[in-house]
Specification:
Protein name: NDRG family member 2
Number of helices: 13
Shape: globular
Oligomer: single chain
Radius of gyration: 27 Å
Organism: Monodelphis domestica (Gray short-tailed opossum)
Pfam family, one: Ndr
Structural class: alpha/beta
Largest sheet: 9 strands, mixed
Distance between the termini: 71 Å
Family: Belongs to the NDRG family.
């Protein structure tokens, strides 16, 4: 075993790595010590060159870029999700939830693939959740299968975070997904640092809506009703390339029976019962986004259709960066001011966390969808 000398310590540089404490040697002993050439008998990566290590790192990065898909079992069935990136210290994960008729790719991929979104991607790990039976290649549920309610879909999210060992999220939901994440934030306020809600409909269907839905179901197909949910009549009449693309996706979906079950759960949702002066409040910063041609609002987001994450990804990305900055993240992000902005309400900030990180609060909400006296920030975006 080769030994070196360091003061009063004789040490071994070859396995096993044993340290010897020795008294100061005598002059005679010193004369017996000679320099020796020490070589590593068992390299850390035997047979691996620097090029091999670089290739392994590239393969690992490619795996992260491609995403890792997982499924976990819950009391309400299995739930599938795909993770991109690695967790960042002291930062929440961005967790997305798609709308009816879509999956995470058709709902969010055009947005997250834009060049402007790459800065956000580098700063946050993201989790794309897919409602049961909505993932690509999902088998059709058997006849009589009881699809989870939207409340139960929200109750599945803790099992995802437990599996990933994530403590907090920034939720990003569209349509039905916005409702699911709102419900989750109400029941787990300590686990939600912020919400981005696109085309949120927080109310249950009234009797008139229910009757209209039943009558429409007699004359329209499920795919037609879902398209009317996703896009405005103007967009459907114009039959743009985007509308044609998504019509083709939904009409020819191999899991259309599953989509219909999700659609029925959405139409049977409960009212979220936001209470401006009660306990039913979203207690985190919230960014509301509604397309100016969406079936839910007359005009909130300029130049955008019913799906702003698809039609105006650049403007939505910039608004998202401002929102994350307001939460205390990405302070060094470089951005230009949103162009052609019509409406944007952002109120005073305050420190609302024990760890001292700034979180915003609001006292007003123009839309009425989010409680006016919520401790969290309410931000309406127009691009």
């Amino acid at each position: 075993m080769s030994k070196g000398k360091l003061g009063k310590v004789l040490y071994s540089l070859s396995p096993p790595y044993v340290f010897f404490i020795s008294p100061i040697p005598s002059q005679a002993t010193m004369s017996e010590l000679q320099e020796v050439s020490i070589t590593e008998e068992k390299p850390l990566l035997p047979g691996k060159t620097l090029e091999d290590v670089k290739e392994a790192e590239l393969a690992a990065q490619t795996l992260l870029d491609a995403g890792q898909t997982h499924s976990v079992e819950t009391p309400f069935g299995s739930i599938t999700f795909t993770v991109f990136g690695i967790p960042k210290p002291k930062r929440p994960a961005i967790l997305t939830y798609h709308d009816v008729g879509l999956n995470y790719k058709t709902c969010f991929k055009p947005l997250f693939d834009t060049e402007d979104m790459q800065e956000i991607i580098k700063n946050f790990v993201r989790v794309h959740v897919e409602a049961p039976g909505m993932e690509e290649g999902a088998p059709v549920f058997p006849l009589g299968y009881q699809y989870p309610s939207l409340d139960q879909l929200a109750d599945m999210i803790p099992f995802i975070l437990q599996f990933l060992n994530f403590s907090t999220i920034v939720g990003f939901g569209v349509g039905a997904g916005a409702y699911v994440l709102s419900r989750y934030a109400l029941s787990h306020p300590d686990q939600v640092e912020g919400l981005v809600l696109v085309n949120l409909d927080s109310s249950a269907k009234g009797w008139m809506d229910w009757a209209a839905h039943k009558l429409t179901g007699l004359t329209s197909s499920v795919s037609d009703m879902i398209l009317e949910h996703l896009f405005s009549q103007e967009e459907l009449s114009g039959s743009s390339e985007l509308v044609q693309q998504y019509r083709n996706i939904i009409v020819h979906a191999p899991n259309l029976e599953n989509i219909e079950l999700f659609w029925n759960s959405f139409n049977n949702r409960r009212d979220l019962h936001f209470d401006r002066r009660g306990d039913t409040n979203l207690r985190c910063p919230v960014m509301l986004v509604v397309g100016d041609q969406a079936p839910y609002e007359d005009a909130v987001m300029a130049d955008s259709g019913g799906q702003p994450q698809l039609t105006q990804p650049v403007k939505l990305t910039e608004a998202l960066k401002y929102f994350l900055q307001g939460m205390g993240y990405m302070a060094s992000s470089c951005m230009t001011r949103l162009s052609r902005s019509r409406t944007s309400s952002l109120t005073s900030n305050r420190l609302s966390r024990d760890d001292g990180r700034p979180r915003a609060s609001s006292r007003t909400s123009d839309s009425g969808s989010i409680p006016a006296e919520s401790p969290g920030q309410s931000m309406e975006v127009s691009c």
